[in-house]
Amino acid sequence: MKVFEMKVFGKKDFKKITDFLRKPGLDIKIKVNADCAGMTSYRAGGKCKALIEAGSETALSALVKYLADSNAGYFILGEGTNVLFNDGYIDLFVIKLTGDFDKIALAGNGCISAGAAASLQKLVIFAAKHSLDLSFLAGIPGTVGGAVAGNSGTTVKGICSSIKEARYLYVSNGFYGYRNYPLKTADYGYRFCILPDMAIITGILIAPETAEREDILKTIRKNIKNKKRSQPIGSRSPGCFFKNPSGSSISAGEMIDDCGLKGFHFGDCVISEKHANFIINSGNASASDVFVLSKIAAGIVKNKFNIELESEVKLVGF
Fold first, then answer.
1. From CA 195, how far away is CA 216, in angstroms rounded?
2. Domains parsed from the chain with CATH numbers
3. What is the spatial distance between Cα 282 and Cα 277, in angstroms, rounded to a whole number?
4. Has 167 been annotated as catalytic?
5. Which of 191, 193, 236, 269 is labelled catalytic?
6. Annotated catalytic residue: which of 48, 240, 259, 269?
7. What is the pLDDT of residues 68-126, one digit of tens each?
8. Is 240 a catalytic residue?
C-alpha cells in the first residue's frame, strides 16, 4: 500500500467511478477524498481516494470486479475499531458494507444468520434474547465481519469456533462469486481466519451454545463490568494494539507494563495507565504519533524479552 502527500482526486478517476455508479440497479454510494480519521476509533489519519458503501451482493461483486479491472487497491472497513490509517493521502478505495449486510435473524436449528456489517454487540444481545450464548464476545466493539476476520474473542475462545458456515465473496481465476463455506478448525486460530479464495466476508451462520436467558444476560453484564474495570473503555483507541505472543505465558500488555511504559507519551498519544496494551489518542495525535509510540513499545519489549510483538491493529498505508 502506497502513501502519497495529499492531492486532489483526479478528474479522470472521478469520471470513471461516476460512470460506473450510473449503472442501473447498483446499491452504491460514494464520497470522494474521504476523511479517514472520521472512520476510526483513533480519530487520526489522512484521506483516501473514496469511501464507497455497497448495500447488496450484486453491488459489492460488481464494485470489487471494477476496482480489480482498474488495478485499484481497496480496503474493507467495518466500524473502524481495529484500524489505523496513515497520515497524508492513501491511494486506496475504502469499502464499507451496508444495507443487506446489516441484518440479524434466527435461522432455525439453534442458528442465527448475521450480515458482516451487523454490530457484534447487537448479535450478542439478539442471541441472548433467544437463549443462545455469545456472552464471551460481550463488550468487544466492531462488526460481525471484522470479528470473523480477526477471530475476535477471549484468549481461549474466538467467534469462529461457534460459526457453522461463512458466506463470502471469492475470487478464483478471474471469476467472482459467493460461497457458503463450512468452517473447519484449520481455517482459523488466534486472531485470524483465512478461507479459500476469500475476498470479503459478507455474513455468517452461527450456532451458539444454549443457556438460560437470564444467566446469559448476567454473564454479559459481568463481562462488560470487568472490561470497564480493567480497560480504558470509551477512549480513542482500537483496544489492544498488539497480539499476545504465541507460546508465551506473559501477555503483550504485561510485557509492556513490566517495561515501565504505562503513561509513556509520544506526541499526543499515550500508553494507558489502566491497560498497557492500549495506545490512546489523548488529544490531537497523528497516525504517525500512534505508529511511532507502538514501535517504541515494541522495541523496548524486544530488548527485554527478545520477543517481537505483532500488531493486532490493521495498519493501512504504512
1. 30
2. 3-100 (3.30.43.10), 102-224 (3.30.465.10), 232-316 (3.90.78.10)
3. 15
4. no
5. 191
6. 240
7. 888 888 999 999 999 999 999 998 999 999 999 999 999 999 999 999 999 999 999 99
8. yes
